[in-house]
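Notes from the 1:1 (GR / supervisor)

We went over the backlog. Supervisor wanted to see one worked example end to end before approving the batch request, so GR pasted a single chain during the call. The sequence is below; no edits were made to it. Supervisor asked that the structure be written out right there so they could see what the output format looks like.
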Amino acid sequence: MLVHLGPDCRALRLRLRALEWVVLEDVALDAVLDPAGRAVAPTSARRIAANLALDPGTVARALTHLRALGLIEHSRAQGADGRFGLSAYLLAPIPGIELVELGAPTMARPRTDRPRVEEPPMASPSMPTPKTRNTRPAQLDLLGNDSS
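Structure output shown during the call:
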């Protein structure tokens, strides 16, 4: 699953605290599309806390706030023996956040054309002038004595 963030999600990001935004992102990263096309994340506060290296209580408070805003909905499957089963979160449609199901990886076709290489322009070598043809280069005299 690929989570695509578009510019429309900026308003929501400004409304949420940073922790709540990161928790929402982690829920989205765990989401899969069900047959109805809804994004369902089979995760829990403990799993999100482990993913983000946070305290589970802190993550649970962020999840509670996200539920209160209507961004996620909590559901819990019932286990075979009547106990609570796995926890899951249903993501509401959020402007600017799109979940994209990735298909089989595709191999990019290799380029077969040769790259065009351009040579940098070269300056023509300077031709010696009669003044510089057979003269020795002058030596710099730091003490003010004339060396010629």
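Supervisor's comment: The mean pLDDT is 81.
Batch request approved.
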